[in-house]
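Provenance

Sequences were taken from public entries as deposited. Structures were produced by running a predictor on each sequence independently, with no templates supplied. The record for Response regulator transcription factor from Pelomonas margarita is shown for reference.
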Amino acid sequence: MQPKTLALIDDDAEYSEFLTQFLQEQQGIAVSHFDDSNALLAAPEAFSFDFYLVDLMLPGVNGVELIKILRRRTDAGVVVVSGRLGPEVFREVITAGADMYLVKPVQFEQVALAIAAVQRRVAKPATTESAWKLDRASGELVVPDGTRIQLSEADRQLLECFAQAGGEPVTREALLNKLGREVPEGEADDGLSATIYRLRRRIERATPTLVPLQSKSRVGYVFRAPLQIL
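Predicted structure for Response regulator transcription factor:
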């Protein structure tokens, strides 16, 4: 089992070019390469990839810090492929949230096997026990760990949209219509990104549970977990 999309974050241009070619042509994975961790974090789809291959020595945010950021926003597989050695390095990256650590030089076939092994573990279907719940009566979001988060009216409208979508992406236009806002023309700022950001931060401050609310490049947003309306 291989992921559909993968972000490769590595500043070694030659290595990245050939690894990207191998994964795309031999494994059928759509690879997006970033030679700078800040470039990944600035991308609209930064937390929407199915998998991440991360080097440790990177321009911008270093690899360990990047893994910590990813773990706050996604439960996708993370494999480190790096030339850094030593038990302390292994301990550092695994503690940060990486699923596996490979040491360069490494064969591309080994990278593909590592990706498949991690993907089998992380691609488990969600169950009703892990469902999030939108309690209309109390105006709260109930996290699977039992935490209850008080929501604003805009938060409730957005979450109703995501619940009705059943895990499918919701367009920006649909979300704006739900909020009663006009859809702007051209590049005008519609304020939706700020609204989504505030909702995500409200949840992150209340619980350590991974927030499954992610952007979907060129589409809108998706709530990648069961969400029920009570």
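The mean pLDDT is 88.
Residues 13-27 form the longest helix (15 residues).
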